[in-house]
Amino acid sequence: MSSPTSISAPIGFSEQLGYNEIGVKLIRQTFGRNLYYSVKRIRNQLTKKIYQAKRAKGTEKFLNRLSKMSVDSIFFTVAYNTPWTIKLMISFWHKNCRNLHLAVIDNSSDPASAEEIRNICSTANISYLKLPKNNAGHMCRSHGFAINWIWKNLVCRTPNLNIIGFIDHDCFPIKPWDLSSKPNVFAYGAKNPGYIQGVHTWNMWAGFMIFDMGRSPVNKRKMDFTVNPLDTLDTGGMNWRTVYRNLSTDQYSFAKVERIQLNLKDGNKCPLSTIEVEIVDDSLLHLGGLTHKKLWHQHNVEEALASFHNQQLSTDRQA
Question: Looking at residue 231, which CATH number applies to its domain?
Fold first, then answer.
């Protein structure tokens, strides 16, 4: 999944012309690049619409459950082939986000993993829905298709939903957190900046973003979480064109994100490696890459979560 790349600049970096706020050289927008990614944009929009039109078994049951519970705010987490991360997420959510409704939307490609995730959610009384088969080849495109499907088929069909949040399955609430921590704005989350020369593009990182539709200046159906390589933005980046660039500064706000170092250990408690992770809003620990990094596995993740309170925070720079 994508990562909130806006969090900190290289040590010693001072912002200068030709670089974005995290020290990445801005990309020049050439005619050839425009043409290439415009064609890809057409491809992405077409495949997005095809995927959104697919039906998922259990959708009506899922919507009826939300209606019966009178849910007016909800957080969605998109699962992908790692049942133990969902088990950890639910455990932390029940402990630290007791007043927020969590729903697991399963984008797993492995049937056995999907069945295990379904059972975990059923045991924990967590709302669960398996998405239609997602054939997007790239991880960010797959994630974007999943969120777009959720938005069209769940969010837009639940009229009483006021606050809609999305959180990565590897972004754990390690401290108590609720919506009182959120500013009174339409869009809130971790900032993901674009790198186009002359234009400061951005989108809310798909791993932590919240939308207050009671404060929305746009129609729900304008939201588009497709990747946007033309503006150097990944999952959720098309919202720059459809929504974000038209917002005034009092309609959005960015979460504080810090980088810290976690010391992972092997089974013998010996140092294995040190890895950089992120703390969002002083309460959420984002590990990153649990679906594809070989370094992560259940044992060392649980140890990292258990021990991080005893480790010295090493912060570069706040967003």
Answer: 3.90.550
Q: What is the pLDDT of residue 264?
A: 64
pTM score of the predicted model: 0.85
- Whether the per-residue pLDDT at 24 is higher than 80: the answer is no
Does the pLDDT value for residue 46 go beyond 80?
A: yes
Q: Give domain status of residue 54, yes or no.
A: no
Task: Dump the DSSP string for the chain.
Answer: ----TTS-PPTT----TTB-TTSPBPBP--HHHHHHHHHHHHHHHHHHHHHHT---TTHHHHHHHHHHTT--EEEEEEE-S-HHHHHHHHHHHHHH-TTSEEEEEE--S-HHHHHHHHHHHHHHT-EEEEPPP---SSHHHHHHHHHHHHIIIIITT-TT--EEEEE-TTEEE-S---GGGS-SSSEEEEEEE--BTT---EEEEEEEEEEEGGG-SS-GGG-----BGGGTB-TTTTHHHHTGGG--GGGEEE--EEEEEEEEE-TTS-EEEEEEEEEETTTEEE---TTT-TT--HHHHHHHHHHGGGSPP------
Residues 162 and 187 both lie in one domain: yes
Please tell me whether residues 165 and 234 are part of one structural domain: yes
pLDDT tens-digit series, residues 286-302: 987 655 455 556 556 66
pLDDT of amino acid 298: 56
Backbone angles phi, psi at 41, to 5 degrees: -60, -40
Of 254, 274, 292, which residue sits at a domain end?
Answer: 254
Structural domain boundaries enclosing 289: 257-310
